[in-house]
Amino acid sequence: MQRFARSKAARWAAFWLTALLAAAFAGALAPASAHAQDAAHSPCIATVEQRAAYAADGTLDEREAFQESLGNDEPSPGLVQQALAREQAQNGIAPNAVPGDDGGMAAIGNAHVVALRVSFPDRPFAEEDTLEALQALIGPRAVGEAALPSAGGFPYENLHDYYLRASYGALTVTGEAFDYAAQHERDFYTANIGQLYKEALDHLEASGIDLARFDANGDGRIDAVYLHFAGGDAEWGTTWWSNADKMYSTVSYDGVSPCKFVTLHNPSDNPEAARTIIHETGHVLGLPDYYSYTAMTGPSSGRTGSLTFDMMDNNTGDHNGFSKWLLGWIKDDDVTRVVANSGGLTVTRGGQTVHQAD
Fold first, then answer.
1. Torsion angles phi and psi, residue 221, rounded to 5
2. Which tens digits make up the pLDDT trace of 134-163?
3. Is 163 helix (H, G, I), strand (E, B) or coil?
4. pTM, whole model, 2 decimals?
5. What's the CA dihedral at 37, 42, 47, 48 to 10 degrees?
6. Cis bond leading into 155, ω under 30°?
7. Contact 28, 320 (CB under 8 A)
């Protein structure tokens, strides 16, 4: 498996999106008071103390480079193209091409994911970090089934409940969790975790698991593969941390191929695990981190990015309105568009002009 290379076009698309962020964040974020009880620090971001330690031991640059290589600092190209196509349609412009798609989990409809609980000969799981706890993070195994009790409290009970609310009913996530005992010690996979994913999926297929059922949108790609590994983490900016990644795979399982991968380091019985898997699923859907990996200033590492409660910033609260617009969860008739140029200022809503000024 090989990571997707980010194109120049994707970087220009990210520039276009960045230009919209200030306006979108200003009016579309949940009130801070609504989540005042939540922790201010994200379990996915390195703390100030950790970064100081990395600088002291000489690993900071390497960790930052690893994190940036994942490509989660930019929206996915497919998500951008779909949003642009909707904008062109609203402006009466025919799109130049069919909107791009990154494959994997759809933002609208059903998603059915596979979760792997992977132990190693040299690193077992703690007794409380069970397969049932991992299943509880996802939610129901099928639409209409009940979810197992999760360590995460409202609104972070599980993927299913969180994304059903966040998407206003547009996205329903279900999934199944499986145990797998790796063939080698954990360090064997550090430089090529893609081999571990392949090894585990090969095992599922050999066990008679029909992996085609994990392609709910029928695009030929497994919606997402989550890998919760045993033995603790190696901290931020490493393979053994919670990360979302996109990798090419030439391997087909029952006619479908994997492309979206997530590693999970928090014990599944830890409340932070629910917030982390929800955040990483935002990346699976194509959303970026709304904070900088390198420009962290101020008294805490949280002093960067959107500086407020947001699932893609500090793993807290809801997705903001801009993210929901990108994902197609907000109806076009509910979006106010402002165009300002040399001809004046035009405000439209639902395709109708509601204000015009020279």
1. -120, 140
2. 999 999 999 999 999 998 899 999 999 999
3. helix
4. 0.83
5. -70
6. yes
7. yes
